[in-house]
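CO-FOLDING WORKSHEET

Operator: S.A.
Ligand of interest: pyridoxal-5'-phosphate
Run index: 367
Mode: holo prediction, single chain
Checklist:
[x] sequence pasted
[x] SMILES validated
[ ] output reviewed
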Amino acid sequence: MSELKIDDRLWSTKARNLSPYVPGEQPQHDNLCKLNTNENPFPPSKKVAEAISALLAKQADELRLYPAPESDELRAALANSHNLDSNQVFVGNGSDEVLALVFASFFMKERPILAPDISYSFYPVYAQTFGVELVKIALEADFSIDPDAYRQPCSGIIIANPNAPTGLLLSLVDIRKLASEHPNAVVVIDEAYIDFAQVEGANSVSAISLINELDNLLVTQTFSKSRSLAGLRVGMAFGNASLIEALTRMKNSFNSYPLDKLAQAGATASVLDTEYFKDTCQQVIDLRQSLISELTALDFTVLPSQANFVFARPHDGDASSVASALREQGIIVRHFNTPRISEYLRITVGTAEQHQRLITALKELNA
Ligand SMILES: *Cc1c(COP(=O)(O)O)cnc(C)c1O
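OUTPUT RECEIVED:
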């Protein structure tokens, strides 16, 4: 096949100037140990497939007709599970889409937005897409977030909590402080990994518990990690009804049906299966602890992760070589060749079998 030559003559200036997000690779070989994109090692609740099959078995009309534009049942189930009103819940086609609508709804203003210098790499991409100035606030030397560093004029703040790729958790006290110190900015807490966070003595670590108190706080979450449904594409946002209304207006000015019927049915079934959800989250948390111990025993420095991945530095700091050597064994982990973190690897928490394969390979490297 001849190489395709891209001709951008007909492109808008906007399209020409984009630098799109590059997702972690999804290689298709057999027997790969895929620990690079933070997918859940466990399957989704069986109730998800049951709900989708039941819907398809019902009648052909299910797919002939448009889905519920506002995903009412799913939003009601989410609201119910968090003791909220449905008008405090928004859903979208993955939390990436929800975040895009957040940028368009709240951040396209005169003032810049603030985000940690080391965080989810999609934020700078959205900033560029929507013409928003993003000011990066440096993490502390230990990769923690200092809320005092955010005391500057802005139209918004966006922080992943637990942060990616560090896995560190910001406390609710600090989140409350950030939101109350910036009453005229929307503070977005991206809780893609929050269901894996566990703080002794605290009955809630999610900032959802603060939204009735802080009307400029918006919390986003996803079904992709803790609910094992990355392939279904469902994400959500929680906030006061006025913030949710802005997101709904933006959605309906772009795509009124972002969630198809199968996604709505599957996601709703997942929310209703609380027991399975809690059980698999706890298993991931336990596996995370054993992975941290095993890596520490191999002289890795491992940050105290509250997510379903660990951020680990091999003793010589040559993370890039370790990633390449693992790849030769069919084990894929994520290495970011960017300032401050190039000596670290982000390793997704997998099954006990996957961990064994990883640790065996690392021991062979050391030998
Ligand atoms: C995975 C991830 C997302 C995106 O989740 P989707 O719902 O799959 O789009 C958003 N934010 C962070 C920090 C993530 O790691």
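REVIEW:
The chain has two domains: 24-44+275-366, 46-272.
The mean pLDDT is 95.
[x] output reviewed
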